[in-house]
Amino acid sequence: MLNRKQTVVTGEDITRSVADALQYISYYHPADYILYLSAAYEREESAAAKNAMAQILVNSRMAAFGRRPICQDTGLVVVFAKIGMSVRIGSAHSLTDLVNEGVRQAYLDPDNPLRPSVVLDPLSTRINTRDNTPAIVHVDLVPGHKITFIIAAKGGGSENKARFTTLNPSTSVSDWVVDTMSTLGSGWCPPGLIGVGVGGSAEKAMLMAKEVLNEPIDMFELLARGPSSPEEELRIELYQRINALGIGAQGLGGLTTIVDVKVSTFPTHAASKPVALIPQCAANRHVTFTLDGSGPAVLTPPDMKDWPEIDYGSTLSATARRVNLDTLTKEETATWRAGETLLLSGKMLTGRDAAHKRIIDLVDAGKPLPVAMKGRVIYYVGPVQPVQDEIVGPAGPTTSARMDAFTEKVLGATGLYAMVGKAEREPVAIDAIVKHRTPYMIAVGGAAYLISKSIKSARVLAFEDLGMEAIYEFEVQDMPVTMAVDVEGHSIHKSGPAEWRQRIAGF
What we know:
By secondary structure, the protein is an alpha/beta fold.
């Protein structure tokens, strides 16, 4: 018999709930991630990795209390909507339009504006949409009288490391995943988690890997009770094997690279074994809510007692080398060694992809640069818009590898003394670092709000039309960084994981 009971969910409730959810996940980590990261911090033996995790945890607490983004990359919005077949959406607009209006309201919220990162035309102009629309919306019709939404904001650093393959049916999924993880570097901002989709078709495997990332973190419970299915056996095997790679927090070498592995499977063709891998970064932004026609979602803030209080500042001040950027010399930068912690104070420039491209275009055209860069330090960053009395919004590093193709020409043309970014550099960039004796430092991805508090002034110097990608001058005080590649070409992203892989193998 046909069930004539029908729930009406208004379009206004959907839009309001999406907007509220995106604001919520911009500054609240899921409590389960904090629990697992705190445990990883307590047991970590690598000083560099422990320092990075401390910054992520301190940043998370600050962002929660300050209601400001955990990370400057506030993500591409991904929505999974499970719509009960007895639900009617009371609106003249499509579900996608209702979701996009929620995205627009969230990212343009004057109290907590989020950085818009979506470009309209991926092939040519790549002009920013300015409001982070459109979202990626996946819809599934299910029995019932409710709509369940999963709202996620996926950062570019981790999204760029998504991988897919089709294996022969007899080939090991575990071997492919571990081999792939060993090639991803740290641009996806570990420690995080990975989603693995096995089966279906190419697009089904990728979709499963993306959706399963939003499930609760429960690896400790799984390890305690043991596996009860092939999927759980694979989860445990991958958790142990990937952490044994020694990649560690931010790729610095250490005991914890991932806090969990999620696996989803689906029937597939007898000739195929599609496998998708998607990492989730340390920001790990997602929330689930249900609408039943009674009004918009009510999202309860997490209990901040679950967030550890870490006395990070005093520990750092006692161990780090202090650097005055305003009196920096080549002789001083040559004494910095890969792996040591520095506290930067003074004036630095900023510039990332678009600014580097313009600098190269000016150099190739024989035109003068708009900013004198000789003797300066450049920070690869695209900050969030400031609010109220902020100097700048959350301002964490972007992935430096995107600048690698520009590095030789930029260093040769500008006379920069040092660079700051995130994650490892490719050999072509390391060659330029050695040639020009211009070291490279990293700030912690996932500590954007904490880093912003070290910025005491900010002004645009060039390319203002690029928005967050313009060249700024920041004045910083005690900005924490780790030396990643020194002037001799020694890289902490090579030596750190290699050392810890050996240590872990000996445990």
